[in-house]
Structures are given as C-alpha cells and as structure tokens.
Amino acid sequence: MQPDQSSRAVHCPHRGSHVCQEDYGNASHFKCPYHGWVFKNDGSFVGAPEMQAAYGGRLNASEWGLRRAPKVDSIHGFIFACLSEEAESLRDYLGGAAWMFDAIFGLHPDGVKALAPPERFILHADWKSGAENFVGDTYHIGTAHHSVTLTGYLPGDVREGGQYAHGFLFENGHEFLGYRLPEWFGPPFKYWGFPEELASQFDLSALDETQRELLVTVPPSVGTIFPNFSYLRMPEPPGPGEFPIPNTDIRVWSPIAPGVMEVWHWQFNFAFMPEEYQRKAYLSGQYTFGAGGIFEQDDMTIWEGASKAAQSPWNRKVGAELNYQQKRPEPNPDWKGPGQFFDTYYGEYLQAGFWKQWLKMMRNG
C-alpha cells in the first residue's frame, strides 16, 4: 500500500503479465519480465524499450500506469482492497467484526508482524469449504481431528472442545468462535495462553469492558471475514512434549479455477515479543496448521473429497442436498457487545450467516 493509501494491480497493461513475482519486500521500480515495461512503485509508467522504433515516440504515461484499486483501507496493519467504487468503508463493512479485530490485534502499539513469507499451496476444493469451516465449525473436530489426540502431540482430547465453545455472529457474513480456554486448559490460558510476563505488556486502554472480559474468559479463537479472510489463534505445542503457546494463523482462500483454490497462509505474532518466543509460535502454528500440519492434512483430504462428490454427474442430476438442520439456538440476551453471542456452537447459525451473505451477493450481482 502506498503512503496515499492506494494500492496498484500487479498486471502489466501491455500484455497482462505479472510485474512482481515476490511475496514480500520493497523495490523502487518494477520491470515487466515479458517486454520490459517499467513502473515506479506507486504504479506510474516510467518507460518501455525502444519506444521510438516501436511506438513512434513516448507513450502517454498517464494512460499506461498500473491500475489503481478503487477502495483500499487497512485495520491493524492488514490491508484490504475492494474493486468497487460504490463499496462502503472498511470499518462500515466489518461492522461488529471490527470490534473483534480490535480485541484480537489491537493489544500493543507495535502491532503484529508476519513471522515468515506466506506459505502457498493448492487445494482441489471450493474456496468456500475453507471459509465456511473457519467461521466456527467445531462440530467436525472430534471426528476429523481425533487422530491428533491419538498421536499424543496435544494435551487433552480434542473431542472435549465443543462444550467450551461459543459463537459470535456479526453482519455481512463475518463470524467468530471462541473457547473458554481458562476453564478448559486452566488459568494460564487467559489471553489465549500468552505467558503473564508478555500478556502484562498488552495495552487494553482502548478496549471496552466487554472486550477485556472476553480476553480472559472466551478469547476469540477462529473466524472468517467474509468472503475469504480467515483467522485462528490457539495454544499448541511448538514441539513434542512442550508447553502449548499461542500461534496466530492468517489465511486467504483464493479461488483460481472452479473447484480449485490457492491458500495463502501466514503465521503472525505481536512484534514486541522476544525473537525466541516468536520462533516457537511459528513452529506451533506450522506443526498444526501449516501445509503439512497435523490438523491441516485432515481438512485438506475432507474438502477435496467433498469437491469430487460435487462434480459427480449423478450428484448433479439428482440434485443432492446437504444437511444444515441442527436446531437453532437463541442468542444470549445479556450480551453487551456488537452482533450476537451464543452460549453454544451447535446450531450451524455461523455457517447460515456465511451462506446468507454469499447468496445475497450472488443475487445482487
């Protein structure tokens, strides 16, 4: 993102080739690898090879710069771009989810940082499978991930998690799920399990009373910003037999073809924390939710299987329907935060919120 809060496309306007192949870093200029057109890092056109011979003179720089995204904004360092001029502001679009973002990422003036370049991998599954799962599908964990318990890598039994889970339902298809971690794992797991000497450095002055209570009772553990930005923060061991520490997993489910997505996956942590702690947080996240992680492998197999079934000519012919018929709970009437808070994760209300938003956008074009 540029100092003027703008963002540019990385496709050359000459023949559409990518002008930047890197996932991170800085450069003053970008040169298209196809025909050598050059652009400043603000997207403005600099020049092209042999312009006099090829074009009869200099090209009009105002016409051939990299395209600017119509709407660009950021929240706690995360940059969001929108390709519609008519879109509302980022905070308006996030609604109550912005309040949740503040509670998750707005805990220290130094912010958070990526611990490594993004990990990218291809899944032969629809992008919505991942996004819907991360809104808070705890129902699958006891079955799909029971193998994790059998390895002994994690303390306790993953099948117990459902009784400690709560849902947060916001507008525009944004949903989160939190666990009563101190009750499940013990008092050290307030603030997701960040040790006292680090959690004591959090600045909670900008948070309201409900947010502060949330962090010590039901810290938000997983969620999706509609359509395809997902978050996870859970305490997990950085190695066999080690004490669990929180990792912060951010991912984007990027559709690249029908039934195929590319997952962009980062590990984050608070920038002020010691380097050795950040190293362990990175390992904690990669062992569990990296491309080869013990949780991630289960999910990839399941989502790809569902995608194969969806492509079946027979399934298409008979019009197979999926089951979203868990009994719907009522939200907690005493909740003082934005959106709705539920005392149980059962009911598929989080998934329903996601699909209602998707259907709304499909109908509205």
TrEMBL record:
InterPro entries: ARHD_Rieske_2Fe_2S (IPR015881), Rieske_2Fe-2S (IPR017941), Rieske_2Fe-2S_sf (IPR036922), Ring_hydroxy_dOase_asu_C_dom (IPR015879), Rng_hydr_dOase-A (IPR001663). Gene3D superfamilies: Naphthalene 1,2-dioxygenase Alpha Subunit, Chain A, domain 1, Rieske [2Fe-2S] iron-sulphur domain. One of its GO terms (molecular function) is dioxygenase activity. It holds the Pfam family Rieske. PROSITE patterns: RIESKE, RING_HYDROXYL_ALPHA. Residues 11-50 form the Rieske domain. Belongs to the bacterial ring-hydroxylating dioxygenase alpha subunit family. This is Aromatic ring-hydroxylating dioxygenase subunit alpha. It comes from Sphingobium cupriresistens.
